[in-house]
Amino acid sequence: MKKKVLIIGGAGFIGYYLTKYLAENTDYKITIADNFFRGKMDEDLRKVVAHNDIKVIKADLTEAVYFQAFEKDYDQVYMLASVVGVDYTTSIPNEIIRINTALIFNTLEWLKTTKVKRTLFTSTSECYAGAVEAFNYKIPTPEEVPLTISDIKHPRFTYAVTKMLGESGFHNYAKVFGFENVIVRYHNVYGPRMGFKHVIPHLAQRFIKGEAPFKVYGHDQTRAFCYIDDAVQGTVDAMEKGGNGETYHIGTQEEITIEDLIKHSGEVMGYKGTYENAPTYPGSVSRRCPDITKAKKELNYQPKVNWKKGVTKTMEWYADYINSGKKVYE
Distance (Å, rounded) from C-alpha 162 to C-alpha 130? Predict the structure, then answer.
């Protein structure tokens, strides 16, 4: 019998690829729920839905009443819905708090009325953004590092604060109301179709606009980027094989500098100009790389896409999209 799966946030960046991945596996009967923040179901998602008999629920899940459209007996519920993006945290921090908190609370209050067997909440490495800086925790960083925010007043951390709330909420509601739960913390997931409020799409836009000299903000900061295909595989592995109540890092240990990222992106985009180092964005940490030993051991998680290959594919997709004259979406 097929597993009944609900993907909350199924039209978003990771949600779309997760929906597509599960749809290609005949073991699942899929429902996706989303508010279609970008305006409508795009052509890619429409094809996946049409070809795989996927149920679509359009709903503003910050309002509890819309949960009445859901069934009560899903085998698996993926909770991906949230507002994310550094630009949003600085421009609408109040909305980050309002929307993400409402999504989490309403989902948990609905779950306690259901017979849902297992949930997965998607979190972020931003939750311990201050741990390495303040306490000199080791890098690559394991899951047991304390969740730490360095400046609770800074709008940059509003997203992280809501993800901490979600982690605590899902773990504790699961214990009280008898469903299983697993957490995944994503580390810099990227790829085609991720919107335009993130670092790699920003780079594509800036190169196309002809910025020169090209400013390298935070050139010596490091990150470990995870291509979307690897992120989705790790997410499904965590849902299917992860221990109840456990947390897993989903990412890679290919730690590179922002300068590495930008100059490789420039090569892909055919940039021949000069580069100029510039200050980093406020609140940005100097170094981040996950220890993925636990995911490798318990989930057999093995990321496969080298960062240069993934960035090349992503930059080429954005260049084609922008140059085609299509509308830049959020």
Answer: 15
Structure tokens at 52: 């795989």
64, HSE (Cβ side, Cα atoms, 13 Å): 10
In 3D space, the residue among 227, 206, 328, 326 whose CA is nearest the CA of residue 271 turns out to be 206
Fold adopted by 3-189+226-252+289-304:
Rossmann fold (3.40.50)
Strands 255-257 and 222-224, sheet pairing: antiparallel
Q: What is the pLDDT of residues 24-60, one digit of tens each?
A: 987 999 999 999 876 556 888 999 999 998 999 999 9
**What are the structure tokens assigned to 15, written together?**
């949600």
Token pair 């960046």 is found at 13
Give the tokens for residue 55: 């149920």
What are φ and ψ of residue 34, in 5° steps? -165, 155
Which tens digit of pLDDT belongs to each residue from 170-228? 999 999 999 999 999 999 999 999 988 888 999 999 999 999 999 999 999 999 999 99
Q: Is 36 left (phi over 0), alpha (psi -120 to 50) or beta?
A: left
The residues spanned by each domain of the chain are 3-189+226-252+289-304
Q: How far apart are CA 217 and CA 282, in angstroms?
A: 11
Structure tokens at 93: 């921090």
213 preceded by a cis bond (ω within 30 of 0): yes
User: Tokens 């490495």 map to which residue?
Assistant: 125
- What is d(CA 10, CA 16) in angstroms, rounded to the nearest whole number? 5
Structure tokens at 43: 């052509």
C-alpha–C-alpha distance, residues 184 and 206, integer Å: 32
Structure tokens at 168: 């605590």
- Nearest partner of 286 among 131, 87, 156, judged by Cα: 131
Whether the CB-CB separation of 142 and 293 falls below 8 Å is answered with: yes
